[in-house]
Write a structure and sequence with these properties.
Layout (H helix, E strand, L loop, with lengths): L6 H9 L3 H8 L7 H11 L3 H14 L6 H20 L10 H15 L2
Helix pairs in contact: 1-2, 1-3, 3-4, 5-6
Protein name: HTH cro/C1-type domain-containing protein
Organism: Plectonema radiosum NIES-515
């Protein structure tokens, strides 16, 4: 994936969403539609259920911090990009799936939270 300097804009473009629309989905009080989550999941190469899980887990864990999911997603995105670079060095048959990489990135970011 090419680095654009605005990863959220790039992801929004890939998902067929607007940047403000994508950002709004990230807020705790955001209520993304099923179709928006499906578009975003396809752009990320993950199951829509994973995005639902992240969004609603954040609402439970951080009910008063609207920017927490933004920071969480940025952290996962950064870790995921680094993991992809490392995985590219492995033989294709040994590479974990994109879903496995995402799960590892999520666990890594969670382990860094206080």
């Amino acid at each position: 994936m090419e680095e654009t300097g605005t990863p959220m804009q790039h992801l929004a473009n890939r998902a067929g969403l607007t940047r403000p629309g994508l950002r709004g989905m990230c807020f705790v009080q955001g209520n993304p539609t099923e179709s928006s989550l499906i578009k975003l999941a396809r752009a990320m190469g993950v199951a829509p259920a994973q995005l639902y899980k992240l969004a609603y887990q954040n609402r439970v864990e951080n009910p008063y911090n609207a920017d927490a999911i933004d920071l969480f997603i940025e952290g996962v995105d950064t870790i995921l990009k680094a993991m992809r670079k490392v995985v590219e060095q492995q033989p294709e048959h040994q590479r974990p799936s994109e879903s496995e990489l995402l799960e590892r990135a999520i666990r890594t970011v969670k382990s860094l939270q206080g």
